[in-house]
Model the fold of this input.
Amino acid sequence: MRHKAIFVFQVLSMMGIWVFVLGISAWVIRLIRVANQLKDAETASVAISLVAIPVFLTGASVLTYVFVGLQRGAKKN
Amino acid sequence: MPKWGMVIDLDKCTGCGACVAACKTENNVGVVSPRLSSENRSMFWMEMIKMVEGEEYPDMRVRYIPRPCFHCDRPPCTRVCPVRATYLAEEGLVAQIYNRCIGCRYCMAACPYTVKVFNWYEPQWSDERKQCVNPDVSLRPKGVVEKCTFCYHRLQIAREDARAENRPLKEADYRVACQDACPAAAISFGDLEDKSTKVYELSRSTRAMRIMEDIGTEPKVFYLSEGE
Amino acid sequence: MSQDATNLGADEALIKPLHRVSLKLTLLVGILVLLVVNMFIVFARQVGLGLGVTGMNHPVTWGFYIVNFVFFIGISHAGTLISAILRLSQAEWRRPITRMAEVITVIVLAIGGVHPIIDLGRPDRVLNVFTSGRLQSPLLWDVTAISAYFMASTVYLFLPLIPDIAILRDRGGKLRPLYEFLSWGYVGTDRQKRVLENGMTVMMIIVIPIAVSVHTVISYIFAMTVQPGWHSTIFGPYFVVGAIFSGIAALLIVMICFRTAFHLEDYLKPIHFSYLGKLLLIMSLLWFYFTFSEYLTAIYGNEPHEMHIVMYKFTGAYAPFFWGMVVTNFVIPVALLSSPKTRTIPSIMIASISVVIGMWLERLNIVVPSLANPRLPTDTGFYIPTFTEWSLFAGAVALFALGFIVFSKLFPLISVWEMREGESHGVKEVTDRVKSYLPGGGTQAKAQTADSGKASEK
Done:
């Protein structure tokens, strides 16, 4: 029972991380759209987002990869 | 579209400071206690700055120059604002949005002319001053940056009046408070791109200069040098 | 790692400090909590009354908060960057150091990252950054860069922590549910080890450019303006070098403190301090080179506004801070660390404290003098921090110490599984690797090390 509860929390925390990362990406994209509408140096924001969004996505992907890998690896033993 | 600008004739300017006082009352700029003033927390939208040339007495000259916001065409302050609380509006005015400003003071650090002032405390109004605040200009809360707006509220009123009377805006309709107060008529204000205005002519005169033109900010406040 | 996780043998010494709470520690935590509480009270007062309670004024509109922001973010470079570089270069002596370095990064980054918010006149409006932010502003570059770095370094701290959490989980105790939650079901199968290793490799590669970018971007807050003393192309690398410099010093201080407090003499040996001390010496020389370049160009160019600020630092009101910075950042560390005779642990401690102070002074020397001497010939500004700023500074340092102590009571400060790995595989691996460098050396090293860089040799 406790194992189940802890597993649910672990999955929830992973989802939380994805919500955070996707939230940041959505925010950055929104800022680019605003900059575009206002004709306010939009190239600068695009350049920053090109670096920022992949970094966040990589971080979350690595975490997910390790989480899934550890779960699967534990069962095989 | 007009491009508002100012010309200050240093030959006519007596350094009396009437523009500073007029600006303060017109725009509800906070008056601070002597203690705060000694802490460098005075608030001026239009400030008299002292320029000292030379080192020792006979070869030395002290000048007083009125300095509003220069409303640069390429403003360094708007570029760094994290929330677009200061921006270059249409008609060339550099605007401040007090309700959006988060008070990071980056624009103050970026302005080469140090024209912006910050509300270090909630502005205090004495009972007398409370009764004569200008209702056309919003009072600022503590913690936001503010600066000269070229009396933007006067432009709005002049526009309304002109529209009500169904006529185009005339040069005499939009005058700024410091210009009105100047006893020597040293300050001219108007559309820099309208050939009929006085500022058009004066800003293109051979005496016209701008402060620190070399850093490329393209201020819209021109000074007419002395010695004519 | 062996399956018998509960029996650690000699490495038990790494877990033991977790359960010991001495009177001295309680006292220290009490003082730190007081400082933190004081910080919150003083900050609440600042929010209530306005930023006027600080010493900031016109034209010195930035003070301690921005100085500390740059300083703390600089300290954070100790960790993840150094640990990633050491791991990538397979430096075997890294094993007892990496964990502490990574913890410093995460805690200091969290504290430093909040500093721009306490600097705001309207902290209640900080969420305006989300509704109407401008990515064109260098401040937003900081927001994105620091949150990216925070995320990457937290992941990079967490992944190597998982096997240790699993050890703690298997040992049971009151906190077992927490450890079980954090251990992600790690039991040490081959597949799990491989997955974890892959994850760590990706993280240590991406964390290095992120760390460099973070401090570069922080320097851009200043360099992107046209103000004299700030508008300099060298600022990015200058800040990065300073950051690593102060980071190593902070790491050394933490290492020496916990070596004594946790009796880790057997793990943190003089050789570790000697290596890091040499690194600190190199960074000191590098820092001096950058400082020299920065000021020489200004002086030789002799541009009046620029010169005005340089003279303000050299002979004016900021002369004590400027020359203090040169002494603490260059003279003291070089004098103490140059000779192997004086490169002892106590003198490394002195040099490190000196460098941390010096790098703080450097940030002060960058932020305030440029603001105090605006281009327009108005009066020179002044800046005298008040009780508010000192309280928040003390509180921030206390919060760091507190965070570190809490971490040290929850998790081992020295990576247990990495130490054990070093004992079981490290020695053989290094011997094989060295053999493979030599003519006619063994080829089995290729299979042993994950590093494919030597694949082309043979």
